[in-house]
Amino acid sequence: MPYGYNGKILHVNLTESAFEVEEPAENWYRTYVGGSALSAYFLNKLLKRGVDPLSPENILVFACSVVTGAPLSGYSRYTVAGKSPLTGAFGRSEAGGYFGPELKFAGFDAIVIYGKAPKPVYLYIKDGEVEIRDAASLWGLDNWKTLVQIRKETGEKMVRVASIGPAGEKLVPFACVQNDLEHFNGRTGMGAVMGSKNLKAVAARGRKKPEMADPEAVKELRKAHNERIKAYQSGLTKYGTSVLVKALNDTGIFPTHNFRDGVFVGADKLNHEAYHSTIFESNSTCYACALRCKRRVFLEDEKYPLNKQFGGAEYETLGSLGALCEVDNLPAVARGNQLCNLLGMDTISTGCVIAFTMECFEQGILSEADTGGKSITFGDADAMLWLIEEIANRSGIGKTLSKGVKRAAEIIGRGAEKYAFHVKGSELPLHDGRGKTGMAIGYALSPVGADHVETAHDGPFQGEGVSKLHPVGIFEPVKPLETNREKVHFFINIQKAQQINNCYGICNFCSAPTAAMPFDELVKTIRAITGWDTSLYDMLRVSERGTVMGRVFNNREGFGPNDDKVIRRWHKSMPNGPLKGQRIDSEEFAEAIKLCYEISGWDHSGRPTRGKLLELNLDWLIDESYS
Amino acid sequence: MKVTVKHFAKLRQDEDQDPTEVEMEPGSTVDDLLLKIEVEQDVVDILVINGKVGNVSQELTDNCLVTLIPYIGGG
Lengths: 627, 75
Description:
Chain A is an alpha+beta fold.
């Protein structure tokens, strides 16, 4: 019998209002495990080349892993994946919270959704029973009302709901999927794919937790894990990700003014001290997690009221709606976060689109004539909030902007593309690659476009910090500003290690390479949960399999070396701050990417070779990739 | 006793990252050291003592090397 997982995948055809349950063999689970890798398997198997991401031909995958829902800190994550309407490439995004574990307890490890319902529906999965329910009364509702209504309709107070808001229904290509108002599959527009299928929500309630292979060992591992979290991760417990604002600003890599600068003069008004002395209400957490890094916020304010039902702004949002737009008004940024959560839009892409609009105004490319008389300037908090609603409603200038910076710039013309910053069409998370060059290589190579969880960031492994990477063969202290061969070696090995988390559904803050869970403990944990005779080697291969399948998917959609780039601004000198003058040399960077291909067993056009596919047990992909 | 501190508060290799020597009372902990050099413990992501990941309650030893790396990854 399977330990840690159910051995059941639910396939739902919304066009025919039918479903069936697949029970793959153990070897299949050992090969694809979960999350990013399991999703990439279905996308490659089931999607024809060139399907329109918003057509019924696209699929949507909700993928837990074999260990999601195990009673350990950080083992709560699941992936939502499909072909991305934002990029046309492999799309996926991870979220924590309670939905993933609840789906497992309800009897399924993953759901694959096909077709399009003739009218709005939601999926209700309870203790192994599946129901496709009418969602006429939910369509048009924001995420909060949707959650309240589904709890009422099902009569289950503890039902966990992954839903879309009005932005997903209106097919905004960076609409997100969210669970319980504070956990987000934010990136790559999976909310729009859900909307295109007339699927408002997936609700899960289950009472059957998968058995652990060695429950006593899991208990001991959990105890030690939580002790380490307490000893080493107190900063994240105390301040959450807001702690990053000061650190990135002080080191000169806090993206400001639409990725032009690395230092924001208003950072003190957004940082952890400001956050916790004004809007902070309480800590919040994910399933079984002792780290408690999530925040709840509250503010009684006429202009920027904040409600504690929502998760508070995380670092990425403090950066995107804050520094990137030069807004130093914390309640306004937090209000913007709440609006995005209600409407169901990714805060990273939304902030990038707004900062792009501000720069277009600054450069005279857009004017009041384009916005019905509204002036949009950097630093204007109310313009930022106004644009969020315009974009979600696809009204006025929002109709153009809601397409994301790449396509909006094409529509606007007049040189707007010079200020539209993206990788493969995906807007950038809030980390300046000029001071994290390994992460920059990750932005360029990630199959989903710019993605801050593609690889571990460079900074923590400077000096003696590198000691944590010894188990994956990295011995030289990392130099965050170099793009030389040593950096390529670092990237290749750290990326594989980090992608373990996206495949096994583990939080990056609770697992290796952080001190919370060293690599050897991680392997012991997976063994204790599943009973599998696995190893770090085996797990790194799962991770590489996931990356390679994402790559093959993109290759057949026409993506190639020209898409493996970072933004123009990072090749220019940083204008100010501690990294003044710092740039990424274009030629050296291109050489680094080439070396990554070679090490990975990809050919000069960035295609994994037949030998590489065979090595990774992906021989079925050879015909797919080489036909 | 003497303790050597490396503090990676900047990404560029400059004088700020050159090790500094701090005189501590015997029996002092990392916590005491952070207090003395005025670094808030909650903004330190990784703390390495003599090549091994450590924590703030750990006791310092004579001539030990303490490396402090602030939160600059993740998101």
